[in-house]
Write a structure and sequence with these properties.
It is a single chain. The chain has 335 residues and is mainly α. Helices cover 79% and strands 0% of the residues. The protein contains 13 helices and no strands.
Length: 335
């Protein structure tokens, strides 16, 4: 295809479409029909140019024209409570369910790695010496030490808000940084696993592993699950950049990126629940068994939410992406 000839042949149509778009709502019935026809033809022109003879300036102009025309033809759609309900009952749990083959292995491997690090530190006093001086370690692990007072060092409400903010940022980093070939996600995940392993090792060496688990499990089950889901989704996003499958790399990344954005919102809500548990339940005077039971109940509720609601929605075709009307049009690519 001769691009110059093609542009010369169709420039008048594009100029006419732009003129009609400037007219806005002041179109007659015939002009509205003409706008729809020009929108459809211009979208075809754009796909042809992108597939056969891409030119940055022409592609940019036509992309803007098609986007504006599409918004005019279909009309702007405002988010409603129905959208929020659909997201919470179908979109988010389905996205988590569909990415389970990424975050479940991430969770298993991370937990095993934390256990190995904990055993390694607990069984080797020389490693403990490298972490801190003996007096410092005793101050951290003794009854009433820093590991215990950490959860009651601030008012419950402000502590819960701080924990929620920190964890939400970590989850968002995993989701966003996944686009950089997975490596930053692995680094963020390893830091979290290393901190957990150090706590296990130091408290087990002091003979207080049961106390440590009693403090971690009430909120940690749900919190770590959310982090693992975020990390698994980030890794999936990064792998999409490497292997987009049957789609173009741009289309595949757009689809996974939109789903990841929704996951970030949903996981922020999950981490809010774990932050409330960490701020109000973990440091409470409840018996250890009762605090752990609350953590297990929250974790089981989340898994029920993902596997029952999410599984049902995924089998019905839900992907966690935005609705079709809110997506950009996907153009054909050259074979």
């Amino acid at each position: 295809m001769d691009l110059d000839v093609f542009v010369t042949a169709h420039r008048a149509e594009w100029d006419r479409l732009e003129h009609l778009l400037h007219r806005g709502r002041r179109l007659s019935g015939a002009e509205a029909d003409e706008l729809v026809a020009l929108y459809q033809r211009t979208a075809t022109h754009l796909s042809l140019i992108q597939s056969i003879a891409p030119d940055p300036m022409i592609t940019t102009r036509l992309t803007q024209l098609v986007a504006r025309a599409r918004a005019t033809v279909t009309g702007a759609r405002r988010a409603t409570w129905r959208d929020a309900a659909r997201f919470l009952t179908a979109g988010f749990p389905a996205a988590v369910y569909r990415s389970r083959y990424w975050w479940i292995p991430t969770a298993v491997l991370s937990t095993l790695l934390a256990a190995v690090i904990g055993w390694w530190i607990g069984a080797h006093p020389e490693i403990q010496s490298a972490i801190g001086a003996p007096d410092e370690l005793r101050q951290m692990t003794r009854p009433g030490g820093e590991y215990e007072t950490y959860y009651s060092s601030h008012p419950a409400a402000s502590f819960a808000a701080q924990v929620w903010t920190n964890n939400a940022q970590a989850a968002a980093m995993c989701l966003v940084l996944g686009a950089f070939l997975c490596l930053p996600v692995i680094a963020v995940l390893f830091v979290n696993v290393l901190n957990l392993g150090v706590g296990i090792g130091l408290m087990s060496s002091a003979g207080r592993l049961d106390t440590f688990l009693g403090l971690i499990l009430p909120h940690g089950l749900l919190e770590l699950t959310a982090v693992f889901v975020a990390a698994g989704t980030g890794l999936r996003l990064g792998w999409t950049l490497i292997d987009p499958g049957p789609y173009s790399r741009r289309a595949a990344m757009a689809q996974q990126g939109r789903a990841a954005l929704g996951m970030a919102i949903g996981l922020a809500l999950v981490l809010f629940v774990s932050g409330v548990i960490e701020g109000f339940v973990t440091p409470s005077g409840l018996p250890t068994w009762a605090r752990i039971a609350i953590g297990i109940a929250a974790e089981l509720a989340f898994l029920f939410y993902v596997y029952i609601l999410g599984g049902r929605a995924a089998r019905a075709g839900e992907t966690g992406d935005v609705e079709a009307l809110d997506r950009s049009a996907e153009l054909p690519t050259a074979a």
